[in-house]
Amino acid sequence: MSHTEVIDSKVAWGGGTSPFGAGYGKLMMWFFLMSDALSFTGFLAAYGFFRHNYSAIWPTAENVFTHFPFMHGHQPLIYVALMTFILIMSSVTMVLAVEAGQRMDRKAVIKWMFWTIVGGLVFVGSQAWEWYHFIHGTELGAFELGIGTVEVNGVIEQTQGIIGRWADESKQVLLLPWREVTGDLTSPYLTLEGQALTDALSNGEAVHGANMTRNEYGHPLFADFFFFITGFHGTHVFSGVVLNFIIFVNVLMGTYEKRGHYEMVEKVGLYWHFVDLVWVFVFTFFYLI
Amino acid sequence: MEHSDQPYKYAQHHSEAEGKKTRRMIWNMFWVLLAITSVEVGLGLVWKEWGINFHYVKMTFIVMTIVKAYFIVAYYMHLKHEKSFLKNSIIAPYILLAVYLIYMVITEGNFTTYMDNMF
């Protein structure tokens, strides 16, 4: 029996070549990224679940992350928008490095990989800065209510564990996080003042900053998810910077020039774009919504 | 071993002219991503003042995020131009499992409310 049948490569695999049309390493990188994407999907789905479970008392990111380096006052979203811009920019320099590698342009690969590493380090630094401010908290702090009740729209709600925030520095009015109780966006909080406030203050304690069990900005689960999700993402960014650095050194030494192709740059590039991709989702679900 | 030669075969190369085209695509995509992100941040800052219902704002954010993710995966990660065998074996399992998880969380998410009302 002779093997002379002609196989149409468009509809069937004739053997001898990879049906994926990709090298082993790149293929495995894709499968790893797919499974990693599922992990992050799980985290964000869990975040969404608890957020909706406690939707009335969940803090909003625009009231938590309001700092900008060297500036005072209320600057919601601006710093995280800058971080997002930095990460998108480093994704652009990375894809430019990959493109230069496909033209075997070593100098351009060095240039663009260098800027990618710089962008990554700036991003990790920004995250550290944001963590510092979140852990440290505000000067004013907040107040965690003790056992008691409060009436919200005619319904009696338990106050234990509820975090109230001060309206201003005089500490005369405590804002409770049952949001939009009146349907009026200009005064979206339930307030405690006068005798009710004095009673509440005798039964509870002040909270400063955030950790795994306490969170001055609201529900402790918000802090847990913040540490866990941005921490896991930050770990990815950091290991991405390390991988990029290793490949960068190899490019400098001319390893890929000798090898005849820059596929390694493409592989770390895939990982780096994935890090950016995850941040796109974290940015939306953690900071915007 | 034959296996070790495979990367040479599949590593992508292109000419100066193709490179120019690719770079133009990269920068176009950058402006698109930047524009979407700017609109998101802007909307996040003004929706209260403009009195837009947060439900619509939220849906807009989610749609924009998915559009951004599509551009990154399709163009920057080059998945659009890979062989369909590779494309499908990455996208199909992800979509299947992610949609299933979201479906589960949304439908079974009622359970905690049910428990709260029971006791």
Return residue spans of chain A where pLDDT drops below 50 for at least 5 consecutive residues. Answer: 180-184
Distinct helical segment count of chain A: 8
What structural class do the secondary elements of chain B suggest?
Answer: mainly alpha
Please state roughly what percent of the residues of chain B sit in beta strands, choosing from under 5%, 5-15%, 15-25%, 25-35%, 35-45% or over 45%: under 5%
Name the average pLDDT of chain A: 86
Main β sheet profile of chain A:
5 strands, antiparallel
Helix content of chain A: 55-70%
Q: Name the poorly predicted regions of chain B.
A: 1-7
Blueprint (SSEs and pairs):
The complex is a heterodimer of chains A (289) and B (119).
Chain A: H1 24-53, H2 61-64, H3 78-102, H4 106-136, E1 142-145, E2 149-152, E3 155-158, E4 163-166, E5 173-176, E6 190-193, H5 194-201, E7 204-207, H6 220-253, H7 255-259, H8 263-288
Antiparallel strand pairs in A: 1-4, 1-7, 2-3, 4-5, 5-6
Helix pairs in contact in A: 1-6, 1-8, 3-4, 3-8, 4-6, 6-8
Chain B: H1 6-10, H2 16-50, H3 54-76, H4 84-108, H5 110-118
Helix pairs in contact in B: 2-3
What does this protein structure show overall?
The complex is a heterodimer of chains A (289) and B (119). Chain A has a five-stranded antiparallel sheet, covered by helices on one side. In chain A, strands 2-3 form a two-stranded antiparallel ribbon. Chain A has eight helices and seven strands; from the N terminus they run ααααββββββαβααα. In chain A, helix 6 (220-253) packs antiparallel against helix 8. Chain A has 289 residues and is α+β, with helices and mostly antiparallel strands. Chain A folds into two domains: 24-55 and 63-138 and 218-288, Four Helix Bundle (Hemerythrin (Met), subunit A) (Up-down Bundle); 142-207, no CATH class. Chain A has helices at 24-53, 61-64, 78-102, 106-136, 194-201, 220-253, 255-259, 263-288, and strands at residues 142-145, 149-152, 155-158, 163-166, 173-176, 190-193, 204-207. In chain A, 56% of the residues lie in helices and 10% in strands. By secondary structure, chain B is mostly helical. Chain B has two domains: 1-81; 83-119. Chain B contains five helices and no strands. In chain B, helix 2 (16-50) runs antiparallel to helix 3 (54-76). Chain B is flat, with a radius of gyration of 22 Å. The N and C termini of chain B lie far apart (67 Å). Classes of the chains: A alpha+beta (289), B mainly alpha (119). Chains A and B meet through helix 1, helix 3 and helix 8 of A and helix 1, helix 2, helix 3 and helix 4 of B.
